[in-house]
Amino acid sequence: MKNWMDYFKPHIVDRGCSLFLDDAVQGLEEVGEGYYALVSGSQVYQVEIDLEHGQLVSMWCECPHAQEMNHCKHMAAVLFAISELESQPVVKGKDVSLAQLLDKLTVEQLRAFVLELAQEDRELANRIQLRFTAQLTSQQVENVKKGIIDLGLPFEDRYKGYIEYKRTGDYEQAVTKAMHQYLQPLLDRCEYANFLAISDAFYHQICRQELDDSDGTTGSLLYRLAGYWKKLLTVAPYSIVQVLLDWCLEKLNGYEVAENLLMEFVEMEFQEEQFLQQKLTYFQADLQAIIEKGDMSSWSWKFRRDRIALLCYRLQVQLGSSEADLLNFQANHWEVAGLRKLAIAQAVENQQLERAVYLLQESKRLDAQYRGLVSDYSRQLREIYWSQGQDDKVREELLEMIFSAGDTDLKLIEELQDFVSIEEWQSYLDDLLKDRRFQSQELKLLQLADRPQELLDRITTSYWFLENLDRFEDYLSEKLPEQLRDAYTQAVCQQMEVANSRNRYRQLARYLAKIASLPDGETVSESLRALWKDQYPRRKAMIEELDAVSW
I want to staple 74 with a disulfide (CB 3.0 to 4.6 A). Which of 39, 176, 307, 507 is the partner? Predict the structure, then answer.
């Protein structure tokens, strides 16, 4: 490990060295490719050093100075200790290593020292109990839960009372570390009830913590916690799994920030038949309550209703419900678009095309206010009508997708040309060019309408002048070759005025060959080359690139 001192200010290195010489670095242990240690001073702080292929990649310390994104003396002290451990003589006069010192201590001395540290540091006391206690007592569990509740306090702004953006990363790291320290040992020792109790404390801490969540810190921590729940499900007996499912269902209507995660977890896990039936019973009651209460006009109400209805349907399928029962459920909740989509897909799969058409037409009526859904239904109808050779109905659906739903897919517009007359085609293009929804497609629409001069006029005033010329080069070179030559000349002259790199000079020089391929273009290209050399005699790289182009 070389040059680690470069990460620190000189006075921090000196202070770290003093701590190291005073034997302040305790319990140095290798963890993966990194190291973990405790550094004692006015307080005892945890320090983690991460290495990759022997090189320093990151450092962490729980002291206040480090929490303000600084490299602290405690980190430096540990790095001195690591250097000594790796037999790098960085400090002269240091004869006894920490390992050698510990070897000289008696068991009684070590016990007394650990007890002293644990009495000063509640977190350390909890970790010792978790690692070495055969079974945690109820009081020990309560002690751990109290420590978890306070995890956010060191990172909160003392005046504002919440964690600002710059500290959320440190908070996330601290909670992640605590999860590993507290939850994993309980799983390893099969203390499932205590695991659930402490998991509950983590859940409430994460959901209640006020912070700037711009980076999705809360969601990230909840998904980490869910990862431990998944581990539990692979090893725990049914009785514990039952408790976890009951807990999840109870919490579904609690914190809004966790609702989506809990829903996903409950949906994906607990796949045994007894749990499927319990979920179905719960969500059927929940669906009924949603239908009877709430603001039916709100988007959130509709979203929740549709999600729960689809979940109930899938659970019935998993439990082997009869086709009659499934159809009856669909009929009772026909306003749920997702259920109709399933019915449509099933009808198409079974080649029940008349039923599929009926369902699609009905869905267009029911979901008329949702343009995206209507367009999707029309796409499916178009495919069915096309397979049946019903050109009039294909045309009808295309017109509805384009003009009613406002679908700006150019493939649809180009497809429409095959189903209308020339006069109708031109009329539709005129309408589309006036429709602001299709403003982004204006250039392509002008090409489809075969209006080359208008297209070229629009391009010359567009922001991407040169790029758009390239885009429509084939069409314009056929329709207006001389005008295209002049437009390219104008565009590259504008670009050459501001060009300032060899790469850009090379790109613009290549356009001389493109211009030369157009009528009288060779003369124009030669004139441009001579003009630029005269205008910009100090651009040596430009001149070299111009001379390298031939046509």
Answer: 39
Tell me the angle at which helices 165-188 and 138-149 cross, rounded to the nearest 10 degrees: 160
State how far the Cα of 514 lies from the Cα of 531, in Å rounded to an integer.
Answer: 17
- Determine the Cα–Cα distance for residues 251 and 313; give it in Å rounded to an integer: 22
Q: What CA–CA distance (Å, rounded) separates 479 from 225? A: 64
Residue 270 DSSP label: -
- The pLDDT tens digits of the residues spanning 435-494 come to 988 888 999 999 999 999 999 999 999 989 999 999 999 999 999 999 999 999 999 999
Rounded to a whole number of angstroms, the distance between the first and last alpha carbons of the chain is 58
SS3 of 65, please? helix
Would you tell me the crossing angle of helices 107-120 and 122-132 to the nearest 10 degrees? 130
Whole-angstrom Cα distance, residue 346 to residue 356?
8
* Token reading at 507: 């790109």
- Let me know: does 377 contact 364? Beta carbons within 8 Å: yes
| Residue 425 to residue 415: CA distance in whole angstroms | 11
Q: Locate 367 and state its tokens.
A: 């979901």
Tokens 């799969």 found at:
349
Chain-centre distance of CA 181, in angstroms? 27
Task: Read off the pLDDT of residues 296-355 as tens digits, 9 standing for 90 and up.
Answer: 778 888 899 999 999 999 999 999 999 999 999 999 999 999 999 999 999 999 999 999
Q: Give the residue extent of every domain in the chain.
A: 4-113, 127-270, 461-548
How many Å apart are CA 91 and CA 454, to the nearest integer?
A: 79
User: What's the token pair of residue 125?
Assistant: 């006391």
